[in-house]
Every structure is written in structure tokens, then in C-alpha cells.
Amino acid sequence: MQHPETKPTFTPHVLISHCLRAASIITGVRRDLIASDARQASVVLARQFGMAVAFTLTGQGMPAIGRGFGGKDHATVIWAIRRADELAAADPLAARTMREIADKARQIAGVWPQSSGLPVPDDVRMPTLHHVPSLDREGLTDHHRREMRHLRAKGWSVNGLARRFEIDAEQVYAELGEKSPRQIAA
Fold first, then answer.
1. Distance between CA 173 and CA 170 in Å, rounded?
2. Which of 55, 100, 161, 178 has a CA that sits 20 to 30 A from residue 23's CA?
3. Quick one: which of 74, 76, 67 has its CA closest to 15?
4. 17-44: pLDDT as tens digits
5. How many C-beta atoms surround the C-beta of residue 18 within 10 A?
6. Apex 156 CA angle, 155 and 162, nearest 5
């Protein structure tokens, strides 16, 4: 990420809402919590990472980013960017999480940087602007299904997977080939 006083290079078509949604998906924290005044460590960290990524990718000013993250003021955004950058510099896991949020935001926006040097995910189709199918329009891709099975094997709950992939729990059960409590009771 970049220092708050420097003008970032931005990715066209990535919106603040894409960064908020990406932070929610990658961290597993609900969007409404990220945009709230909640002060739990996991929520604050997701908010800080999302704001730092939004500053880098959207080209928007700090007041606009603050508004997009639940009406925060610009000083909060400055603090969030600095804190996220410090964490990313000190902790490789934090740096990886921020990269994943940035990649997910680009994916949600339907763009993928051609010259980023980052590996292009399996589910990216290749015309000029590398378009990625949206979960809202086309359902889950094979990449998302593999990730869902992997996370389930690591112990994720169905409700946690439903929040991460923004689908309902019944669809998670169906995607995993498991019977839901509703099906077992019937």
C-alpha cells in the first residue's frame, strides 16, 4: 500500500463498495459490521485493510472512502491506511490478506491487471479486460467451489461459508453435497 499523503495509482472501475465487499469476503466479517462503529479487533482490522485497499485502487479521496465505510471521517481513514501499511510491512500474513482483498475487489469489479505480475485466477476469462464472473450474476465458479470445500475441510461452519461467498446456507449445503438440517428433519 502507499503512504496516505501520496497519490495512489488506481484501477479504473473499482469502487469503494467493491473494496468493502472484498474485505468482507476475505476476512469473513459481515459488511454491515465493517461499516459500523464496532471496535472488535477482527472488525477494526477488516475495516482498516478495506480502507487502505480502497485508497489504493479507487482514486477516491479520504472523505469519500470514510463515507463508503459507514460515515467515518477522513482522520479515521488516514489512521486506517497508516495502521494497515504498518501491519503489512511487519507481518507477511497481513500483507497477503491485503493483496487478497485488492485482488478480490478487482475481481468483483470485473477487471484484472494484465501487468501486475500476479497469477491470474482459474476462473478469469481472458478478453481485453479480464472479466471474472460475479457471484451475483452467475453463481459459484469451480474455483469458488474448490475454495469452499477446502475451507469446510479446515473446519469452517456452513454459516461462515455462506457469509464468505454471499449465498444462503441451503446453497452451501447443496454445493458441498451435504444434507441440511432441514432436509434431515424432513
1. 5
2. 178
3. 67
4. 999 999 999 999 999 999 999 999 999 9
5. 25
6. 155
